[in-house]
Amino acid sequence: MELERLLGRIRESITQGKFQNEAAISQGVILPILQCLGWPVFDTQIVSPEFRVEGTRVDFALCRGENRPLVFLEAKRIGNAEGGDRQLFEYAYHAGVQFVVLTDGQEWHLYLPAEQGSYLERRVYKLDLLERELEECVYRLKRYLSYAEVCSGIALENARQDHRDVSRQRAIVETLPEAWHRLLEKPDDLLLELLADKVEDICGFKPDLEDTAEFIAQLPFHPGVQADTRPPAEAPSQASYRHLDPQPPAGLHGRRGFRLYEQRRDCNAAIEIVAEVLKELQRRDHSFLERFSARRHGRTRQLISRDRQRLYPGRADLCESYAKELVPGWWIGTNYSVSSMKTLLRLACEIANIRYGTDLVIEW
After folding, report:
1. Within this chain, do residues 259 and 110 fall inside the same structural domain, yes or no?
2. 11/151 same-domain check
3. Distances 248 to 235, 238, 251, 269, 277 between C-alpha atoms, Å
């Protein structure tokens, strides 16, 4: 499949750090994908670059003849997609466009700006070309951005249907805890009977409904039971990694550290191993951290970033406690599990083109 092969090549180029700016994203990612989706990318009346909206410009307007925009698409540098939705929504409002796309080439955020709720709640789908399977990437891009389906209105209806499904699921997930709490606060007879019957099935004796209701009232999830409000343990100092280690100190060899090729280094904590390895790889290749940060390390957060706040999105308290400057201009998060650190070091080796366990040996 042509689109699947193209996405495979784009993924490889993203991993290698080949797209350094918005123009490269537009030329090397967006336009080739649009062409595979059937858009006549050389017809500027249909795929209109630098489309004027209220005295400003949106990177691309996907039109159905005579510059009638159906979709706005805005390009950002890799890693800079988040935060661009407000401006894009303003473009859509002024032009009456009902579907917009914000992408840094790797992440594709697809929105219905006229829906209700926050920007996040108006997002139909977030597609990460590196995290999703290729089949899923192909399916989503065709579902929402195929030329034929955009022009026919099918793509917009697809987006609306998927948004309704997401909104319904979000409402269910948000309401379940409240419903459970209310049920425990005033349990109806059916719940009490079910629990009493299950007790009888297990031990042969059926409790009174009053005893069953008293038991339910003592459950931790009951709204009348106070949650543990003890303050969290004191956060570790930013100046040291020493107390951030989730593993017991020292392994079988009595030493903790790593060997990169023939260079051996001792470390005090597991996270210090990660930090020192990343610094060494950056010292050997000054583009390493840029390429490493372009890869998504988790669903919402990054291990390293130029922007300290991206390490713990929406949690200024965690940024204050657990963000540490790795090298000038780069920050690292420090409260990861050892299993996560191992995964991240394997990713680092892949990007640096070295062998984990051979060229880089870790002693946790």
Report:
1. no
2. yes
3. 19, 20, 8, 9, 20
Q: State the Cα–Cα distance between residues 41 and 39, nearest whole angstrom.
A: 6
107 and 7 within one domain: yes
The answer to whether the beta carbons of residues 66 and 46 sit under 8 Å apart is no
* pLDDT tens track for 144-168: 999 999 999 999 999 999 888 877 8
- Domain contains 187: no
Q: What is the per-residue pLDDT across 26-40, written as a single tens digit (0 to 9) for each?
A: 999 999 999 999 999
Taking the C-alpha atoms of residue 241 and residue 323, their distance in angstroms, rounded to an integer, is 11
Task: Mark whether 144 and 255 lie in a shared domain.
Answer: no
Q: Quickly list DSSP for 142-179.
A: HHHH-HHHHHHTHHHHHHHHHHHHHHHHHHHHHHHHHH
User: In sequence order, what DSSP letters do the residues of 319-359 get, joined into one string?
Assistant: HHHHEEEEETTEEEE----HHHHHHHHHHHHHHHT--BTTT
Task: Report the 10 Å Cβ neighbour count for 168.
Answer: 10
225 occurs within a structural domain: no
Instruction: Show which of 143, 163, 183 is a domain's final residue.
Output: 163
12 pLDDT band, cuts 50/70/90, is: very high
Q: Residue 331 is part of which domain span?
A: 242-363
Domain edge (last residue) among 163, 180, 197 = 163
Count of domains for the chain: 2
Indicate whether 153 and 8 sit together in one domain: yes
Structure-token match 């930090």, residue found? 275
In a domain, residue 335? The reply is yes
- Determine the straight-line distance between the first and last CA of the chain, rounded to whole angstroms: 44
CA–CA dist 229, 227 (Å, integer):
6
Q: What is the DSSP string of 264-299?
A: EEE-SSHHHHHHHHHHHHHHH-TTHHHHHHHS--SS
Residue type, 230: R
